[in-house]
What does this fold into?
Amino acid sequence: MPTFTDPVAGATEAYEAMRALAHASRTFDQPEDMYGVLGDLLGSVRSLEQVLTQIATAHENLCDRAADDAGDRAAGVRDALATAGELQQAAALIGEAERRLDAASAAAGRIAWPPTIEVQEDAGRVINVVFLQGGEADRLLDLIDHGGADAVIQELAGYDSGDETVDAALENGYVYDTPPQGSLDRTVQLDAYTLVYNQDHRHLGLYRQADALPSPVLLGLEDPRHAATTAELPSSATAAASGVRAGPILAREAARVESRRERLGAPHIHRQQPGRQAGRGLGR
It folds into this structure.
């Protein structure tokens, strides 16, 4: 309860209140509440500037009563005046913070927060498959110029380990509404993938929707030379052409494909990653 007469009790209460606010402001269920919080903080910062100035003045006015632990009055006066000077500098910095906070509060007051639209948990999530920059990206960025972006996407798709890549992206926070893109970045889409790259800043990243089922050819599960012909053959003919028994093998393959389709997600793939391990979004 504020006393308005006891600075020690007031400072203790202010500290506890700021601790509570620091904990509570980690999340905002209602984003429109942030404007009111900023308004209260603006008032608090203005009061803090005043408090620092007043304590600095008190150190100056009472410096003739100061001494160190050994009773040295000169040392006490020196430290009291040094304290006053530092507090005055702090008050000046708080004054600058107050002006910045005032501008932030004015901008926040112009924001309209639309109601939250609930969507399915997996809807629209885009995950990062792999991100390369600097020397790791140079060869592929050069390949874009010589072989085209599709060739780069086909190579980077080798980093996609299906469900494992989705799990790694969720664990590390590499999940987005849309592929992140800077003002100078360029994008290319192929099948379920989006390539985002920047030749000047020397980085590139591959993204896809978490629930997308990429082409088996891009994932390295199907030979592109046989993809077109086997797709046109009936199951028995396909088995005969490959020289294997149709029944159990085709049944297992059909069950595997159906399971992937039912999950509406990426396939669960176990394979070696191409080349060296890359930084983020890589399924392990």
Notes: Strands lie at 126-133, 175-176, 186-190, 193-198, 203-209. Confidence is low (pLDDT under 50) at residues 225-284.
